[in-house]
Amino acid sequence: MSSSNEAAAPQNTSINYEQLTQSWPAFEAQILALLETLDLADKALVCDHVALRVNSIASADALRDAFSCVGKIISDNIINGRTILIIELDTPLTLGQFSIACVELPYPSDKVYPQEGWEHIELVIDSKAKECDTLSQDLLTLCPKLSALLPSEQAAEPVLSSSLDLSSQGLASLAGIKIKMSSPKGDKERLANPTIAFKRDDVCIKVHPHGIKAVIASEQM
Q1: Which residues are in coiled coils (predicted)?
Q2: How big, in percent rounded to 5, are the helix, strand and coil portions of the chain?
Q3: 120-154 residues labelled b (16+ CB within 10 A) or e (exposed)
């Protein structure tokens, strides 16, 4: 791995494959609850992958080896200056109604995560959006309830739920959810894939218009 990665993270192994397996049910329960809150649970969406967070290269290397025994690496790319692996599993993970074929394993940057392990899932919606504003409007069409969190056509930026009186709107369940809009892109990617992330506590759900395999295919163009 790159020397910049080596300098950025401590070299202790703090999360392993067995711990990930044991923690999956708790992660699944949190994600399913957040999906229900966001009104995304019954939309028949595709979950293209699940992502990890690790704080050390030793952990990332050990997980790379472990996942290579139960799948194959289909992408090894640099995104925002750090290595990110995509592993296609021999047997998909099951999360509620979803069958998740791929795992995203990012190598650490200079950010230290408060909790290592499973961190988010990524959903694909029917959208031709090339930027976050259009994606936001498409998501609002699918889930009007999210209008309390997402920007309208007149608003340039989303409003964090913590700044809203959601209880007065009958939407108290949305309180504490943070939103981030971004357009992460790998060095080789040619496909615009804007992303809207909804985070509550230690888990996150991201929504975008293109699945991970389509993004990987764009690297070959």
Answers
A1: none
A2: 35, 30, 40
A3: bbbbbbebebeebbebbebbbebbebbebbbbeee
pLDDT at 155 over 60: no
Q: Number of C-alpha atoms within 13 angstroms, CB side, residue 175?
A: 11
Q: What is the pTM of this model?
A: 0.82
Instruction: Give the sheet arrangement for strand 82-95, strand by strand.
Output: 71-79, 82-95, 98-106, 46-53, 117-124, 203-208, 195-200, 178-182
| d(C-alpha 148, C-alpha 152), whole Å | 9
| Residues 179/171, Cβ–Cβ less than 8 Å | no
Q: How far apart are CA 212 and CA 87, in angstroms?
A: 11
* pLDDT for the residue numbered 185: 62
Which among 219, 176, 183, 182 is positioned nearest to 75, based on CA atoms? 219
C-beta separation of 207 from 120 below 8 A: no
CA angle 110, 20, 210 (to 5 degrees): 70
How far is Cα 9 from Cα 56, in angstroms, rounded to an integer? 5
Of 51, 53, 67, which Cα lies nearest the Cα of 9? 53
Largest CA distance in the chain: 52
Structure tokens at 189: 């990617």
pLDDT at 190 over 90: no
List Cβ neighbours of 83 (8 Å cut-off, separation of 6 or more).
Answer: 1, 2, 5, 76, 77, 106, 107
Q: What angle do CA 191, 77, 105 make, to 5 degrees?
A: 110
Residue 114's CB: how many other CB atoms inside 10 A? Answer: 7
